[in-house]
Amino acid sequence: PRADTVDLNENDLQIDISDALSEKDKVKFTVHTKTKLPAFQESEFNVSRQHEEFIWLHDRFNENEEYAGLIIPPAPPRPDFDSSRAKLQKLSDSESILTKEEYDKMKQELEAEYLAMFKKTVSMHEVFLQRLAAHPILRSDNNFRVFLEYKEDLSVRGKNAKEQISGFFKTLTKTADEVLLANQKENDEFFERQKQFLLTYNTKIKDATNGADKSTRAHKTVADTYIKLSSGFNTLATSDKTDLSRYLLLVADFFEKARKLESRVQSDMDLKLSDTLRYYMRDSKAALDLMYRRSRCLADFETANKNLDRARLKNKEVQQAETAQQNVKQKFETISEKAKDELNDFKTRRVQMFRKNLIELTELQVKHAKAQIQMIKGVLQQTETLS
Amino acid sequence: MSNDREHRQSPPDFADEDTKDDDQMFKSAALPVTDDIPLSGEDDDDDNPFGEPSVQKKIPTYINELSTNNETPSDVPPVTPNVVLEPQLSTPVKQDNELSSRGSSVSSSEISTSATQPVQSTASLESQSSTSAQVSKPIASGTTGITTNMKPTQKRSDEHNIEIAVSDPTKVGEGMSSYMTYRITTKTSLAMFKKNEFSVNRRFSDFLGLHDKLVHKHLPLGVIIPSPPEKDTLVMAKVKISKEEAIPTDFIDRRRSQLERYLNRLARHEKLVQDPDFREFIEMPTELPKSTSTQAFSSAGVLRALTNISQQVTKLTTKTSEQDQWFDEKHTFIVDLHTNLKHLYNHFNTLFNQRKESAQALKSLSTSLNHLATIEEHTLLSSALIELANVQDKIEQINIDHSIKEYTIISELIKEYISLLDMVQLAFQERIKIHQQWLNAEDTLRKKRETKTKLEQTPKGADKLPQVEMEINEWEGKVTRNKEDFERISISIREELDVFEQTRIDDFKKAIEIYLKQLLEQQEKILEIWEMYLPEANKINI
To answer: Where does the PX domain start and stop, copy by copy (chain A) (predicted)?
Structure first.
């Protein structure tokens, strides 16, 4: 159930992250591969990889001209436990002002949150690899093979100064490309449509992702307050020597149970909706990257055409110009052809994933609502037996 | 006379009734008695969790079911020696069904307190005579169209012989001199009123004036007097200067609902319902003279009044009588309860604000999903996204409704009890004041007697003797009266507390029940919404 978007190509290359270790600042993923492909030395093996190595791999794909016409699967986001750690810290700071019961519950909550985030980052790294494995062209990449089977560390240390600057320039070029993309005259109707679509889609889905995140956060906050309410009613119950005490205990119990259920509601919204939106935000950006690359190639193509015309006019270095133009033309046509497939595939993948996750989301929410109803009925029944 | 010493050490004992109080005597260990919680400090905006005027115009008046809970078995009139209730309440109200319940509840309730004998006879009298002595829990119908389908069990409904509704808040005048008036509609079968149904208009300061008068009259008698909602000069200034459309309706409607609960609590109190000022308040159609002393018992005032109680309580507790022990334990319980309720109230306020934020987030999400849907090229997916946006909208609405109801059912009730507990503490303090008076009177008497003895020993002093003897008589009288006052207030407080406790139990039980049912409703609606969405999601086809 972890390979949401990926069509595993039968059994000839299966990848999963079988284990992950969280160590202070870094996470060590155990990448487990099972393969029948001859290119690999063994048929089943494990390596330990860190996040930076995944990024390295992604960069290798991105920079490879061979893959210019393909959508490169988006890199997984960096594991970020800072906010979780900060919350845990805040909790231990306020340990003295909370009752033991409250403190324990909140700690439990935070630990569960941490665990959930951990699972998520594992999943995202896994999906990245699985998409690569499923892609007919990308799976054969040499760097990919090295990533999967090379036992040692890939020595992908943090970018040094020079690399950082070159990275900076790359971003600049990218931004210039974006302008290029926006302004470029596009004769091909398909690509023009795709361009417009992707530009807007990316923006809108970014908004939706943020909206979903905000909503789940707010929901979580409410669920956490239930801890205080449960505790408050418990306190009232213990100091009340009348009949009312048992009612108050029921209410305290209700808030505790409700909290758990509300947490699940929120968590499933997060997993099924927010994460889907987030993934396609990134994937649509990867598609836009493809469009940029094509744009650049098109611009190069147009330049080559102009050069050829000029050369012919002057009758100087015509052969050179012809060759250059031919090359660019070839490149452009290849990219365009592949891109068409990739973009259609993108649509199919997207629709499939949304469908799957929306259905799962709904089924889960139905389940939770039913559970809540059962629970409340149970409490109501208990109040009736009391009176 | 010879009992001076005894009196100083312990107020007279009320022997046997204490056994019935077992349930209510407990050792509250948690907080020291002196723990006065500043009423203003902690509260995050406790008067104004609603903030600015929102779209919500009316707040459903679920409160009525709660404050007007008619399952109060122990609403037997505590009989104080002088007050004779029966003659006034002559109307035989339909008593059939409740009587059985009333009867059984009478026996089970803690009708402790002093006058066990008279209470028993009254109890039997109760079961025969009209139930009008029980100024029961009216269900005042609110002004909104909320179906009060949460009516308490049918048995009790006939018991209502007075119901008060507060409606139609109207702004009179303009600018800073303007004020709000409310329509007070009473439906009653009590004979002391001229008609069965009548309406008057009152302004907020009239309520405060009424409270002031009631306190002055009844507090020394140890009555626990419900208090009206507080003055809120800041928000009211906004109301006064705002134009018609911009009046913060949330605040006004909340105030209206609180005033309604207040009046019904008064009407429920069998001593206070007969108070002429109260009756005039709800009955007299003409405008009341403007109250000047509307300081009344603002929370700050109550707090100030209460700060001394701790030291005085310790004075009393050096004695070992059972009576004092009872009062001491009760007092500790009251203070603890007060603190705990305040904490809980604050948490509910926090929750309210968080729910509001959560609702806003849902709304944003819904909007962004709609936008995404418009760009999504796959038509079926696009429709599914639009439907999902609708789901979020509907859930947002349900959550807002729930949040408001939660506030009305639980938060407002807790708040009411917080101020009621203030009034309880005030009553306790009155008792201590009176005890002090008594002690002082005895002191003075003793001194006078010493003076007399001295004078008797000197030849010259003989002519001053008559004077001193007259004073001695005077002070003997005072001592007796003070002693009686003290006894009376002690009895009264015990009775009042019993009623209070029973009411508290009933109010909260009822509120919990209604709240749970409301929660159930909410979840059922949510379930329905998601179930309706499932086919939509399934429609997505490649």
So the answer is: 7-154
